[in-house]
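DM from R.C. (forwarded with permission)

"hey, sorry to bug you on a friday — could you get me a structure for this? deadline for the figure draft is monday and I only need the backbone to look sensible"
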Amino acid sequence: MKGSIHIDQELCKGCCLCVEFCPKKSIVLAKKLNIKGYFPAEVADIKLCTGCATCAVMCPEAAIEVYRDEKIDERK
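My reply, with the result:
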């Protein structure tokens, strides 16, 4: 299963929990401040994302949404 995530840059406070716990290391801190003065998390390489949702579970601000692309069952 592949997946993708969306990080709300303005909700993120740059705590790095998603960065630390991402098993594929596909999340990094941005080099640009958000409106609140934090360096928010951003996706470094979306191709690595599996949609495991660990980042969303760890995020205390609920700033991450996970989308999963399920394999289409060709038997139908």
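R.C.: lifesaver. Helices lie at 17-21, 54-58.
me: no worries. The mean pLDDT is 90.
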